[in-house]
Amino acid sequence: MTWTVATFAELLENEFPARWAEPWDRVGLVTGRPEQPVTRVLAVVDVLPSTVAEALDTGADMIIAHHPLLLSGVSSVAATTYQGRIIHDLIGNGVALYVAHTNADVANPGVSDALADLLGLTGTRPLRATEEGRGFGRIGRLPAPCTLGEFAHLAAAALPVAHWGVRVAGDPARPVSTVAVCGGSGDEFIRDAVAAGADVYLTGDLKHHRVADVLATGGPALVDAGHYATERPWLTPLAAWLRTATGLETIVSETTTDPFGFHACATLDPVA
């Protein structure tokens, strides 16, 4: 079968329907002529100059991204902003762009399933269900109980976190067996993790005051592994599914798009 932008977009729409996306989200086809052939695909978390350059270097003519390039309304795509320059680069080089964001978050399997699988969770179910077995986040059990300290090291080793590891709130000796996870920015689902009886909740972008409130009221331990690190695992099963479904070469981006590039300590030089 010869794949085109139109048939490829139809495949993705069937797997991640746009109607599953949050009302504020912007998903679906962003650039690309419907009749344009698709021969090689690059899967990325973010559409940035670096990942577009990677697409051009690898000869990809389709990018599947998790985060939207144009999330807010625009009245111009002039090449006076980095988003505008990206649009020009994509169109000028015949590269189509498709976005699956919150519709991929709630999909089953979806972003949080990949995160749960990487941590070895079993018996998973949605943390906040939507409908038809879908929902945000996942909750399941570890194969064997461990301490919070051991779980934190497991997460740091399994996930593509920055070299400074993960942030942990809770007693390192606390027993952990039931684990809730959410890929990306999961601060709003802390209450769901509490209600579900999780021993620990792992996500990204946790807020100071909400974490303090949870600890003060005896809630679960909290692990912040970062936004990028908790969404990047999804690219691997996504690419595997696309290879099976289409027979096309599908590449997982090797470009790290976590914006935090190093950390510094008071007594040490910055570590790159």
Summarize the structure.
With 272 residues, the protein is of the alpha/beta class. The chain has two domains: 5-102, Udp-n-acetylmuramoylalanyl-d-glutamate--2,6- Diaminopimelate Ligase, Chain: A, domain 1 (3-Layer(aba) Sandwich), CATH 3.40.1390.30; 106-231, NIF3 (NGG1p interacting factor 3)-like (Udp-n-acetylmuramoylalanyl-d-glutamate--2,6- Diaminopimelate Ligase, Chain: A, domain 1), CATH 3.40.1390.30.
- What is the CATH topology classification name of the largest domain? Udp-n-acetylmuramoylalanyl-d-glutamate--2,6- Diaminopimelate Ligase, Chain: A, domain 1
Helix percent band: 25-40%
The H-and-E topology, N to C, reads as: HEEHEHEHHEEHEEHEHEHHE
**Annotated CATH architecture of the largest domain:** 3-Layer(aba) Sandwich
Q: In which order are the strands of the major sheet placed?
A: 5-6-8-9-10-7
How many individual domains?
2
Outline the low-pLDDT stretches.
none
